[in-house]
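Chapter review: from sequence to fold.
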Amino acid sequence: MQSVHMEVAEPHILIVDDDFGIRQLLSKALSTRGFRTSTAANTREMDRTLLRENVDLIVLDVMMPGEDGIAACRRLGSTGGAPPIVFLSALGEERDRVLGLELGASHYLPKPCSTREVVATVRAALRTRGRTAEPTGTRYIFAGWTMDIAAHELTDPDGVLIGLTDGEFAILRVLVERPRRVLSRESLLEAARGPDSDAFDRAVDVQISRLRRKLRAGHDEMIRTVRHEGYLLVPPVTRR
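The token string follows.
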């Protein structure tokens, strides 16, 4: 049976906030870290996007003109099947956070908060709801190599198990999940060390160098350097 090549879909995040600057800032921060983003200035635009597209998570401002985020969360929760919601609000009192969580929001972030904190929270919310976790047994096949996510194993085209450190495995996973796309050093560093890492970009270069040595068989150029931008995985990837 012939396998079908496919790119793994990136999670789709809808940012709903009446502040244009915040929408643009969060959209850029999430996009550069491997997410697909859409924006809406109010809940009417949010509803149109939800009718038109599949959304994996909503970043929702609480205080907006018209229907506010609390009312929107209550309405979406009553319909069933709504994507997880991360609240953003200048209302940081405990009662406000508790209300948001009781209405079904996955997380509640008081403003102001850093884009790094928002990205980390989005990832945590998606993991909690199983949106980014790979199904048990998922494997990625590329240039004869097999990466088994559940077993945390990499085997070469001859079936030989290749030892990888946790950091190398994390970086390779991000590359195979987004094949033929340039990924910045920052996004790869976060994958390897987490969003709060203070390590330098050079750490990613070292990990990539080690991966290249371990992936030297099976493809002339497995991981390509794109100057001033980052790295990309060259061969197509099949998910099984």
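Two observations follow directly from the output. The longest strand covers residues 12-16. The mean pLDDT is 79.
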